[in-house]
C-alpha cells in the first residue's frame, strides 16, 4: 500500500537528549528495502504560492493560505505492507522527534485507500 508521508515542523519537539536518528541512514535503509519510493525537502514557506478560484476569479497569493507555525517541510512516498509498517517507518524518521509525520494512503479510483 502506498502512503504519502508529510514531514512537518512542530512547535513542541521531543525534549529527550539521547542521540537522534540520522536522516541519511533512514533514507538509505528505506530505499534499500524498497519502502521509500520518493522524497525530498521543500523550500521554505516564503517560496510557496497559493492558488484558489472563488466565484470564477483566480486568486494567487504568496506563502501558505493559513498562518500556522506547523508547516510541511518535506515528503516521502512510502510503499508498505500496511499502516502498521508505515507507522514503524515513520517512527524511525528523525522528524518524528523534532516535528510530526502525517501518513495518508493514496486513494484508488473510488476514493478509498488503494
UniProtKB/TrEMBL annotation:
Family annotation (Gene3D superfamilies): Dimeric alpha+beta barrel
All residue ranges annotated as the YCII-related domain in the record: 39-105
Family, per entry: Belongs to the YciI family.
Protein name per the record: YCII-related domain-containing protein
Annotated organism of origin: Nonomuraea mesophila
Organism ancestry: Bacteria, Bacillati, Actinomycetota, Actinomycetes, Streptosporangiales
Amino acid at each position: 500500500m502506498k502512503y504519502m508521508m508529510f514531514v512537518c515542523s512542530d512547535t513542541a519537539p521531543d525534549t529527550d537528549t539521547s542521540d537522534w536518528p540520522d536522516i541519511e541512514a533512514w533514507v538509505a535503509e528505506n530505499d534499500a528495502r524498497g519502502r521509500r519510493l520518493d522524497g525530498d525537502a521543500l523550500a521554505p514557506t516564503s517560496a510557496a504560492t497559493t492558488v484558489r478560484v472563488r466565484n470564477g476569479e483566480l486568486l494567487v497569493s504568496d506563502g501558505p493560505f493559513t498562518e500556522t507555525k506547523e508547516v510541511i517541510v518535506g515528503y516521502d512516498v512510502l510503499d508498505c505492507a500496511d499502516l502498521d509498517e508505515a507507522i514503524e517507518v515513520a517512527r524511525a524518521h528523525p522528524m518524528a522527534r523534532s516535528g510530526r509525520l502525517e501518513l495518508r494512503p493514496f486513494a484508488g479510483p473510488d476514493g478509498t485507500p488503494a
